[in-house]
Design goal:
Elements (H helix, E strand, L loop, with lengths): L2 H14 L5 H4 L6 H7 L4 H9 L4 H34 L2
């Protein structure tokens, strides 16, 4: 990715997608146009992404896979904490 594409990527990840449930949003199945409409990204950014050949599908797949991995890790961690709690209180 070139510098402009990295800025776009960071904007998408840190501003648009922060604290979202991507699974419920249907993120994985969105194409570029649906993504822009759903997250209300104006024509200016969408046009810039097209002009710069932003690798949307590659980024989308990588980001979603990382999101799922983090969800799984968080679920395992919460489960372990709950098990520790149950042992501590004698369940």
């Amino acid at each position: 990715m070139n510098f402009d594409q990295k800025l776009i990527r960071d904007f998408l990840e840190n501003i648009i997608l922060e604290n979202r449930n991507l699974y419920e949003d249907g993120f994985e199945d969105m194409d570029f146009d649906e993504f822009c409409r759903y997250y209300e990204i104006g024509n200016g950014l969408a046009e810039k992404m097209d002009i710069k050949d932003f690798p949307f599908e590659d980024w989308q797949n990588d980001y979603y896979n990382e999101y799922l991995k983090e969800c799984k890790e968080n679920s395992i961690e919460r489960s372990q904490q709950f098990d520790d709690y149950r042992r501590a209180v004698g369940f």
